[in-house]
Amino acid sequence: DAELQTDGNRSGHMQNGEPVFDPQVHDEVVRIIAAQLAEIGDQFDREIKARVVNDLVQHFLNENLSREEITRHMSEAVEGLARAIPSDMEQEKAMLVLAMVLTKKIANTMPSLLHHVFSTTVNYISQQLHNYIARMVSA
Predict the structure, then answer these.
(1) Residues 60, 105: contact at Cβ < 8 Å?
(2) Where are the transmembrane segments (predicted)?
């Protein structure tokens, strides 16, 4: 929970200081999914314009915006970028990868926003894509 994994390592949570993993999730399945998402992310990374990232950075820097408003701006950016994705790709997969790539690009642009951007992205993914991720891992 509250983990964003793109490197092929399985995510989990801590219990008594020790990592606890879902025994139903197979390591190899997670590695394959992560590798596919990373490959798509590399492609998207080259296509995302600096203006989109800079606009999001400004929203994150605006102290007058609530967490919900910032999440809405993140969602709008992801959905806008997803509309440009070829129709042969699952829309939910594209949105998941775009959210992670935007998070990386924002953190690279303004490292001091890492924690805020990370928690917003986790919130966005939990709200919008939780069912898709569960289906992808269980398939």
Answers:
(1) no
(2) none
Amino acid at position 87, single letter: S
Question: What is the chain's pLDDT, residue by residue, as a tens digit (139 residues)?
Answer: 444 555 444 455 445 545 455 555 567 777 888 888 888 888 888 888 889 999 999 999 999 999 999 999 999 999 988 888 777 778 888 899 999 999 999 999 999 999 999 999 999 998 888 888 888 777 6
Domain ranges of the chain: 23-138
| CATH architecture type of domain 23-138 | Orthogonal Bundle (1.10)
DSSP collapsed to 3 states, the chain: CCCCCCCCCCCCEEECCEEECCCCCCHHHHHHHHHHHHHHHHHHHHHCCHHHHHHHHHHHHCCCCCHHHHHHHHHHHHHHHHCCCCCCCCHHHHHHHHHHHHHHHHHHHCHHHHHHHHHHHHHHHHHHCHHHHHHHHHC
d(CA 46, CA 36): 16
pTM summary value: 0.71
Rounded Cα–Cα distance for residues 133 and 131 (Å):
5
